[in-house]
Amino acid sequence: MKQTILIKNAKVLLLEENDVVVKPEEILIQNGKIAKIEEKIQCPQAYIIDAKDCIVMPGLINTHSHVAMSIFRETTEGYSLNKWLHEKIWPVEDKLTKQDIYYASLLSFVEMISTGTTCMNDLYFMPEQTRKAAKEAKIRAVLTRPLIDIGNNVLEQKIKEFKQFYETRDKEDDLITYTIAPHGLYTCSEECLKQAASLAKQYHLPVHLHFLESIDEIQDIQKLHGKTAIEVLKQHFEGYHTILAHGVKLSNHDIEVLKTMDCGISHNPISNLKLGCKIADTTKYLQNGINVALRNRWTRLRK
Q1: Model-level pTM?
Q2: Helix (H) or strand (E) holding 140
Q3: Torsion angle defined by CA atoms of residues 226, 229, 233 and 235, in that order, rounded to the nearest 10 degrees
Q4: Do the beta carbons of residue 274 and residue 289 sit within 8 Å?
Q5: Which of 33, 56, 227, 297 could form a disulfide with 231 if both were Cys (CB 3.0 to 4.6 A apart)?
Q6: Domain count, the chain
Q7: % of the chain exceeding 90 in pLDDT
Q8: Contact, 298 vs 73, CB < 8 A?
Q9: What CA–CA distances, in Å, run from 257 to 22, 107, 123, 288?
Q10: Same domain, 76 and 210
């Protein structure tokens, strides 16, 4: 790979005075980093990329994904979220192999890169296969092994799998980083959430979880924990940088509490509409100073 690259004839998307502008500029890249953005750059030794009729812009970030689930796309028709998970997806996922997840992840990375996504925040099982695919695709990735202890899931085993995954990472690879991911407040016991917070503190990692996607979830959390979702979230993860996936069903009180916490919402309007969850009032969230990313994810996670 050339160490010095000069991108010419591009329309470059820039942020100036809190506004986005597009200008005809040239970009010099040295040792993998942008060294200059100017109208004309002279660098005879550089490898030239002609970006005529193209826009050069920062890569998009997929803030909530289950990348291996691209193979399940368009399986949602006519299903509510809970029915789809229990009757359609979880039974099939129980049969997935490591090879399935590896190649499905590669497929997703091809699609992401071809449409300008250069980083993704993933939450799926057998994450070593997604990591293997990410390394081959040379995409930036934030990975984890989700923690869950409903049904037949054994918490100790999930924690063991996460630790083994994290501790076998390539510490020199700065393209791949990690989170702690309790799957959701409705699928994790008090002990599971407590252990997740402990791991986040031990490894100095952010937290990534599903949060208030559906009406059923609100009721399930109250039944499981004897508290509202926002009370459970604040109890276990206040003080941690937290990525909340979906955030469709936030009340005004929830918003007031989230304003005081270090968190952002990754909203998924297309998939939420497909599964009958409706969409979030993102305008209200932004007006209250809550960071929101819009994400059209592939599908969602197994149990």
Answers
A1: 0.85
A2: strand 140-143
A3: -30
A4: no
A5: 227
A6: 2
A7: 72
A8: yes
A9: 38, 39, 25, 11
A10: yes
pLDDT bracket for residue 35 (50, 70, 90): very high
Nearest to 213 by CA among 164, 158, 163, 269: 269
Residue 268 has what pLDDT?
86
Report residue 229 CA to chain centroid gap: 21
Written as six digits, the tokens of 54 are 């193209």
Q: Is residue 115 located within the same domain as residue 160?
A: yes
The confidence score (pLDDT) of residue 2 equals: 58
d(CA 104, CA 116): 19
| CATH number where 179 lies | 3.20.20.140
CA distances from 4 to 35, 170, 209 (A): 10, 26, 40
Mean pLDDT of the region 57-80: 84
Q: Which domain holds residue 33?
A: 4-56
Structure letter (DSSP) for residue 131: H
Q: Tokens for 272?
A: 């939420």
Q: Are residues 150 and 179 in the same domain?
A: yes
CATH assignment at residue 13: 2.30.40.10
Report the alpha-carbon distance of residue 11 to residue 44 in Å, rounded: 21
Least confident of 60-64, 135-139, 148-152, 179-183: 148-152
102 plus 50 within the same structural domain: no
Q: Please answer whether residues 243 and 263 qualify as being in contact, where contact means their C-beta atoms are separated by less than 8 angstroms.
A: yes
Contact status, residue 66 vs residue 300, Cβ threshold 8 Å: yes
Give the angle 128-163-300 at the CA atoms, nearest 5°: 50
Q: Note whether 219 and 124 are same-domain residues.
A: yes
Helices 127-137, 98-114: inter-axial angle, 10-degree rounding: 40
Flag whether 288 is in a domain: yes
Write down which residue in 41, 56, 71 finishes a domain. Answer: 56
d(CA 26, CA 41): 6
